Amino acid sequence: MANSRRRKKRKYKSLLALLLFILAVVLIILFIHNKGKQDNKTVKINKIVVEPITSNNSDENNNKTEEKKPSVVESLSNEEIEQSKKRGLPVLMYHFFYDEQAGETGKDANFMEIHAFEEQIKYLSENNYYVPTWEEILGYVEGKNGLPLKSIVLTVDDGDESFFRLAVPVLQKYNFTATSFLITSWYTSPIAQENFKNVDFQSHSHNMHKAGSDGKGAFLTISYENGCKDLETCRTIIPNNCRVFCYPFGHFNDNCKKILKDCNYILSFTTQGGRVFPGDDPYELPRVRMSKGDSLNAFISKVK
Ligand SMILES: [Zn+2]
User: Fold this and answer.
1) What's residue 174's pLDDT?
2) Same domain as 177, residue 141
3) Which of 26, 35, 105, 265 has a C-alpha 20 to 30 A away from that of 11?
4) Are residues 194 and 264 in the same domain?
5) In whole angstroms, what is the distance from residue 138 CA to residue 144 CA?
């Protein structure tokens, strides 16, 4: 009897051990299975967290859309590019303005009657003339891009009071932009761009619009250090870090060109007559002189 009970007891023990073994195996399987599920959950959570950051960043997407939109210059056909290279870019040169109806007179050919000027701006505006950016003009000079066939740049030298009093209101009336090459020593504080819609300010030097030691423009004989200082001072008066220059009296030499280049000016204009073409020296660009008494037809032939 005792033997039989012991056998039974051993049998139960083996059965219990088997059950415990099976239970352990089941628990291990369940543990592994659950761990797998948890890992999947982590992946899903990661996806949910990560995806919105990359796909819902609307600012970034908007910027990308804007970047993709081609500019006027980028949309030109090959034929337009070739034609624009042959046409050249007229950069018009003005100085002073006067109002005949108010009894004013223009001293010399550098004075433009304001109603004649208004006719010119009206013509450019109605005929959809395009004012390229300076970067587009640099690209054009370097042969990297064309320009729309109706491209035009208006420049007004010195920053005389007649420009602000008479010409700026006309530019604003037609929403047409002109560049003011400013003698910045005429100003004691920085210019607030928000007060001058349709005016792009660039440099005509700070204090070099005067005779130097040889009687010609002071830029010709200034030292390298003082030339750099002068060009940097312009940037304390002109907004947006000006990078385009116009030689006082049109006088320049290789030293002037080196100073401009070293001071990060990208283009410079002379008073030599003509249009700007690809291959021109970016620091020796010609302009088209506008003269008192020019008829509208004479103007049209200068800009077409
Ligand atoms: Zn000048």
Assistant:
1) 98
2) yes
3) 26
4) yes
5) 8
- Full residue range of the structural domain in which residue 133 is found: 88-303
In terms of Cα–Cα distance, which of 182, 181, 184, 178 is closest to 199? 178
Beta carbons of 100 and 119 less than 8 angstroms apart: no
Whether residue 150 is found in the same domain as residue 296: yes
- Count of alpha carbons within 13 Å of 230, Cβ hemisphere only? 25
Residue 78 falls inside a structural domain:
no
Determine, yes or no, domain membership for 83: no
Look over the chain and give the mean of its residue pLDDT values, rounded to a whole number: 86
Per-residue model confidence (pLDDT) at position 14: 72
More confident residue, 251 or 34: 251
Which one, of 217, 202, 207, lies nearest residue 155 by Cα?
202
* Secondary structure (3-state) at 287: strand
Query: At 264, which amino acid appears?
Result: N
Q: Are residues 175 and 224 in the same domain?
A: yes
At 65, the pLDDT band (50, 70, 90 cuts) reads low
Helix axis angle, 254-262 relative to 224-237, nearest 10°?
50
Q: Supply the CATH number for residue 172's domain.
A: 3.20.20.370
Residues 14, 101: one domain?
Answer: no
Tokens coding 52: 């919105």
Distance 111 CA to ligand 1 centre (A): 13
Q: How far is the CA of 72 from the centre of ligand 1 (A)?
A: 32
How remote is the CA of residue 220 from the centroid of ligand 1, in Å? 15
151 C-alpha to ligand 1 centroid (Å): 24
> Which residues are 182's β-sheet partners?
158, 203
In a domain, 76, yes or no: no
Note whether 94 and 171 are same-domain residues: yes
